[in-house]
Design goal:
The protein has 475 residues and is an alpha+beta fold. The chain contains 17 helices and 16 strands. Strands 8, 9, 10, 12 and 14 form a five-stranded antiparallel beta sheet that branches. α5 packs antiparallel against α7 and α7 crosses α9.
Length: 475
Amino acid sequence: MKPTPIKQFSQKELAAQNRDQPLFEAAEKIYPRTAHGWFSNWRWLLVWFTQSIFYGSAWLNWNGRQAILFDLTARKFYIFGLVIFPQDFIYLAVLLVISALSLFLFTTIAGRLFCGYACPQTVYTEIFMWIERKVEGDRTARMRLDKGALSPRKFGLKMLKHGIWLAVGIWTGFTFVGYFTPIHQLAAEVLAWTLGPWETFWIFFYGFATYGNAGWMREQVCKYMCPYARFQSAMFDKDTLTVTYDAKRGDPRGSRSKNADYASQGLGACVDCGVCVQVCPTGIDIRNGLQYECTGCTACIDGCNDIMDKMGYEPGLIRYTTEFALKNGLDSKSMWKRVFRPRVLVYSAILAAIIIAAALTLAARVPMKVNVIRDRSMPRITETGTIDNVYKLQIMNALEESVTYVVAVEGIPGVKILTRNTIAVAGATNQAMAVRVEIPAGSAPGGSNKISFIVRDEKNPDIVVTEKAVFIVPR
């Protein structure tokens, strides 16, 4: 048997092969088609709801100040009537825990619910695509415009679109910074061209990040940058609601006339129109099964239901369902019974317990904090034999009005304060006071003795803090 001769390629053929097989393939631009329907309406309702809160809350006033302000310079967070100091950052940790558990719970129940409806990337991409449609037209018009040669009309439309995108991005950056620098002050600085370097940096950084992510990168952020897309499957199980194509009902696919009996032709309900792919913002075909690129936006459900309605077929060929329900043909009632399974109930119970505990703790929080530091100087023994210790009390007023506090001391018989025992602290500030404490001779043994400072609101005796300290008696 003769060996097969090895073909020799010329340099020209090798160069052609190298050109045909690039190392990196450029991403193909996706032109999502507009979907209309029940889920689309809900998605836009959440867009309006979330952005009304984001853009509007920064302009609200409360007690003569901005209602929501994270003043990093003064190390104070204002949330309506609540003032949070660095000592209260445990509440921030609790908020993060609640957010994480909520995400796990929603994902266990209905997959990437957050991604499809409330994720900032999804929300701003939806806004930017709406602007694109208003300026350049529908899907077909946008494709035709991009394929056409550069003309004054094309240049004008592109400039208008990107100009609006940039304006939305910069306004978003301005609003974001307005939660850290009082937004009225920030607006005055912008108009007077006296904006500081850090405010300028973050306005343009956040603005261009919004412009780039929502205008240019879009689905690339969800597919390649977002880590949630990679580990979401760890929270799925067979009873998790996901956007699913019913292959049993839809296959075999094929086109047909509206009045044709597709069952007699050996076809399924899917007319293979491709609308589910055309409306998908990440460009996937949901009929190939659940994929990590699917953000759960449900545009394919609205698109498919619209086609089913036009064909006179029952909707729901693509729908929210579970793997178990689809495999076993469960009806909606049986499916929902399995959705609220023990795992979901445990998540819900833990989440509810944390929220209730955090709310009760926050409601019972004493709006005052006291820190006692004993002066390092040696105790003073007076001519009458009494013993003095000096302390520094740092009192923080978490209310927004000025409060006068009364300081008392106990723990050793006859112990008393020699200096003034009242101090007025302005709202949402802290103030230090020096206190000299005296005990009678022989009232305490030598060494360290425990005492307690009691700081009480002069007008509201229910607001009281007790702080322990040590009184030193010479041996």
